[in-house]
Design goal:
It holds the Pfam family Glyco_trans_1_4. By secondary structure, the chain is α/β, with parallel strands linked by helices. Helix content is about 40%, strand content about 15%. The longest helix has 18 residues.
Length: about 350
Amino acid sequence: MRILFLTSGREVPSSRFRVLQYVPYFEQRGHHCVVAPSRPPKYRGWPWLGNRLSEFPRAGARTLDLLRAAWSRFDVVVVERELFSSSITFFEKQFRRVAPAIVLDVDDGIFLSAPQKFQELAALCDTVVAGNRLIAAYSDKHNPRTVLIPTSLDLSRYEYQPPMQRVDQPIVLGWTGTAGNYPQLGLITEALRKLSAERGYELRIIAEREPPTELTSLDNIKVRFQPWNAEREIEDLRAFDIGLMPLPDDEWARYKCGLKVLQYLALGIPAIASPVGVNSEILTHDENGLLADSTAAWIEAIERLADDIDLRRKLATAGRATVEASYSVEKNVTLWEEVLNSAAAP
């Protein structure tokens, strides 16, 4: 099968985890894959041009992709999220005209800001692949050929290592994400400030740009910023003793796919998360992670894990098992292949 993937960008998280890590597995199974990222990335324009004017080179690049799709006889075209962040669906409709089959992959609540656009996209696609149960339920209203394939990890890259005891060293609390999501981390700054100074904590932040002052001035906690780097990503995550994923309990957050939590669990990093959306499906409190819904709950969860290496190891073992059972590329590539074969079938 010949597959064309139209993605948001080479380093955009949704592209990396929903598409790019699957490509080697598809190719091992004999499929021919072509990945055409948005140029420049869909949600971030070239700095010297600005995001709005960057729509012009994006449109030019997608025109070339459309011509390639028309001439190369792909069996199926996979659209990751949407081709443009604006309300237009012109290019998706043009790909529909030249492609035998189109599959739309959605891993976020993109329909919240543009419901009419999503309705059009879902209707013109042969299948919609949803990253979690809530997205699937919404999509199913507009396209009954919706399939749930959760955001997953290539576990061949995520080697499990059990938590280590810290002796005369601070416990490293870790958060990773895009800088646009810094407000999520800001939700627990009060809890972080109230942690015991005697125990000793360090907050490690991994993102593409430095955090604002309100995240770096946390009284008794040392804050260290680590610029995100694709080659060092997993190595940098291993420095965490405890992984954090706070979220607001709002509509947008409920459609998140829990990527941070999955990365922590896969590496053997015990996780604490807000019980919002898919987080409550991935984590069962006190079994494979901890859930916290208030400042007091966050303080208690962090201090419990900091003081109890046995609990950290228990949660880490169970967390890795959770990812292996339901959230691995190795497990879900077959489901993806079935979706693509079904969409491409005459």
